[in-house]
Amino acid sequence: MDVLNTSSIMFAVIGDPIKHSMSPIMMNHAFNISGFNGVYTSSLVKSDQLGAAIEGIRALGFGGVNVTIPHKVDVMSYCDDIHEDARAIGAVNTIVNDNGKLIGYNTDGIGYVRSLMEETGTDIKDKVIVMVGAGGAARGVVYALSLQQPKEIVIANRTLAKAEQLADGIHDVPTRAISLDSVSHDIINEADIIINNTSVGMYPHIDETPINLHEIVKPVIVSDLIYNPLETKWLREAKAKGCVTHSGLGMFIYQGAYAFEYWTKKQAPVEEMRKVVYESLQNRSKE
Ligand code: ATR
Fold first, then answer.
1. Which of 97, 115, 163, 181 would you label with 275, given CA atoms 20 to 30 Å apart?
2. Tens of pLDDT along 51-103?
3. What pLDDT score was predicted for residue 124?
4. Sign of CA dihedral 245, 247, 251, 253
5. Are 128 and 151 contacting, i.e. CB atoms less than 8 angstroms apart?
């Protein structure tokens, strides 16, 4: 859609900070490719303006917004309705304006799982998963993984109490919480999928790795939620050991794809979205 007009539907990502968000580039490209008459921008919203900003969605007739750090939890109290997944996770990253009714969704976890399955060709059912990290990002991921009936989820975190809290919230799948120090050779080698949910290895600390994979004896799937850098040192180590690797870029693309689908009721042009984000990240790393 090259021409914006009075029929164009407005969307935005709101957060603080917001300057480096890749969402506007990805979503406007998706709207264009799909012939959807929409426009997507970003707004820096301070915490004390969050309520006013959400009320503005209704007042200005926006189609919806994405919500990012630090508002994903607080925004829930301003939604008229919250999807059960988002309620279980305790965070909202997408709001749909359904004729003035603001409905909160969480597309982060389901976006991650769709990306993991489609990009690695794996099934989660009956798999043993080791999750490293128990922060905000891990909440959505663990919940979405649990819906796929894995055999077991082991949550390893530096702060054991946070791993225990996360494990306590999962009821349908056997879940175990351990401290990061006790990730042993046996635990690594019982795993089918190992996932880094921490920020360890993210730019600018690109030489750090979340756990040691030295002792891995069978090739497993190793996945990192980080997408800056596109391939972390940890993923390079895993690849060198013959593991199938999966980067965090897919999670970002698919959380956007789900939001796109909720808003437009059309199938998201996932590969085009990936391409434009990938190119932007490449250009950014050259700056
Ligand atoms: P996010 O919303 O991105 O998940 P977060 O909620 O702050 O951010 O969570 C960050 C995760 O990375 C946590 O699991 C954190 O461990 P703690 O719960 O012990 O804080 C983990 N993390 C961050 N820096 C770490 C480090 N240097 N070593 C190990 N774990 C780290």
1. 97
2. 999 999 999 999 999 999 999 999 999 999 999 999 999 999 999 999 999 99
3. 97
4. negative
5. yes
Q: Is the CB of 90 under 6 A from ligand 1?
A: no
Contact 22, 252 (CB under 8 A): yes
Q: Give Cα separations from 113 to 40, 161, 212 (angstroms).
A: 25, 25, 24
| Integer Cα distance of 67 and 14 in angstroms | 5
19: annotated active-site residue: no
The pLDDT of residue 244: 96
Q: How far apart are CA 12 and CA 141, in angstroms?
A: 24
> Averaged over 105-130, what is the pLDDT?
96
| Cα 96 to Cα 112: distance, rounded to the nearest angstrom | 20
Beta carbon of 68 within 6 Å of any ligand 1 atom: no
In the block, tokens 């897919």 appear at 250
| Ligand 1, atom 21: closest residue by C-alpha | 198
Give the global pTM.
0.92
Q: Rounded distance, CA 121 to CA 278, Å?
A: 21
Distance CA 244, CA 260 (A): 29
Token pair 């490719």: residue: 33
* Ligand 1: centre distance to CA 158 (Å): 8
